[in-house]
Amino acid sequence: MSTIEFYNVKKRKKVKINDSQVKKTTYEKKIQAGGTSVRYAFRAQDDDGTNLTKFCSEGDWKGLNAPTE
């Protein structure tokens, strides 16, 4: 089992979360050219309840076997 490193803003330090607790999500944004821009991210929750988000590449996003939000 591997871990993914997130930055916890409340603790002001990096934390490692097991990939079994991570969910995948995408953020879509309309751009002026008429299309959409997609950003890929991992989401998790730390032990103190802080919501964590880490943006990643499309390849990393597709490579992780996790549920999608």
Key descriptive features of the protein:
single chain, 69 residues, two-stranded antiparallel sheet, 52% strand
Overview of this structure, please?
The protein has 69 residues and is mainly beta. The chain has one domain (3-63). Helix content is 9%, strand content 52%. The chain is built from one helix and five strands. It has one helix at residues 58-63, and strands spanning 3-8, 13-18, 23-30, 36-45, 51-56. The strands form two sheets. Strands 3-4-5 form a three-stranded antiparallel β-sheet. Strands 1-2 form a two-stranded antiparallel ribbon. β3 (23-30) and β4 (36-45) form a beta hairpin. The longest helix is centred in the last third of the chain and has 6 residues, at 58-63. The chain is globular. 6% of the residues are buried. The model has no long low-confidence stretch (mean pLDDT 96).
Q: In angstroms, what is the radius of gyration? A: 13 Å
The proportion of strand residues reads over 45%
Number of helices: 1
What gap, in angstroms, lies between the N and C termini?
21 Å
Beta strand count: 5
The helix/strand series, from N terminus to C terminus, equals EEEEEH
Give the tally of structural domains: 1
**Major beta sheet, specifics?**
3 strands, antiparallel
Shape: globular
Low-confidence stretches: none
> Helical proportion?
under 10%
Look at the helices and sheets and give the structural class: mainly beta
Overall pLDDT level: 96
Order of adjacent strands in the largest pleated sheet: 3-4-5
